[in-house]
Amino acid sequence: MESTKKTLVLGASDNPSRYSYRAAHMLKNHGHEVVPVGIRKGQVAGLDIHTDRPQENDIDTVTLYVGPQNQPAWYDYILDLKPKRILFNPGTENPELERLAQQRGIQTEEACTLVLLSIGQY
């Protein structure tokens, strides 16, 4: 059994056609604690989507579903969470945020959360 990893889904959505929706469900189904954060209120995987910036402890992974053009407003929040790693899903790659994270000892990975979960590499 894989260990659980508290994961903040940034860009969470209650729209079933969005990858962040699928990721929240898949993470929960794999036994991971999910903290959904988005710009619109709603629910995903039975959880309320936070539209504020909740101060969470023990975040293992921040998985990004916010495009690089919208990420700068989130830099301080993401980095202050002190996650072990940041996953840049396809379309969210951002060399500037990767550099800032690495300077703080945060691992970065350009990968798809859904693929990592499906192959047991999350």
Radius of gyration: 13 Å
Shape annotation: globular
Helix content: 25-40%
Mean pLDDT over the full residue set: 97
Distance between the termini: 12 Å
* Oligomeric grouping of the chains: single chain
Q: What order do the helices and strands follow?
A: EHEEEEHEHEH
Which segments are poorly predicted (pLDDT under 50) over 5 or more consecutive residues?
A: none
Structural class: alpha/beta
Largest beta sheet, briefly?
Answer: 5 strands, parallel
Beta-strand percentage?
Answer: 15-25%
Task: Strand order, main sheet: write it out.
Answer: 2-1-5-6-7
Number-wise, the strands total: 7
The number of helical runs is 4
Protein name: CoA-binding protein
InterPro entries: CoA-bd, NAD(P)-bd_dom_sf
Domain CoA-binding: 5-116
Pfam family, one: CoA_binding_2
